[in-house]
Amino acid sequence: MKAVEKERQTRETEVRLKLDPRGGAVRVETPVGFLNHMLELLAYHAGWGLELSARGDLEVDAHHTVEDVGIVLGEALEEALGDRAGLSRYGEATVPMEEALAQAVVDLVRRPFFRFEGRFPAERVGQFDLELVPEFLKALAMNGRFTLHVRLFYGENAHHMAEAVFKALAVALSRALSPLEGGPRSTKGVL
Description:
This protein is an alpha+beta fold. It has a single domain, classed as Imidazole glycerol phosphate dehydratase, domain 1 (Ribosomal Protein S5, domain 2, 2-Layer Sandwich). The protein contains 4 helices and 10 strands; from the N terminus they run βββαβαβββββαβα. Strand 5 (90-97) and strand 6 form a beta hairpin. Helix 1 (33-46) packs parallel to helix 4 and helix 2 (63-81) runs parallel beside helix 3. The chain is globular. The model has no long low-confidence stretch (mean pLDDT 94).
């Protein structure tokens, strides 16, 4: 694994980041406060170093910004992992956040897939549209080239539920990235 710097600039957004899955400082600055909070949780609980800044067309809404951050973070993770040899490959975590419970299951196999099951009890947390949670996760998994299944079992507070999802993802990724003796965990010999 290695540190990676990535940038994406479109007519809608501008995203810059430095990701080090081995650890480091966490500094996130986007115009979407709730996204900042979720990304800080993700990096902290995954044990990553993450420096990220983004701007976007919030006069439209936060969708382009949130999705593009997911795209760039996924691309950075894909590059940082290299050939993925020596990684455990699989990771799973079920994480509570008070009354909420969420699960994330990861396979770093390089066959991107995403599935999200669950419903939030509200449409928004503050100004953040909660339908953007699965949009971010899908962009991350597709561009990071890994399989991700997320289940949001239950909860009453939408903030807690989103937080449980991001923490579960962080712990699952941390487990999937943990070192493994020998070659890749695959009968094919490669991931």
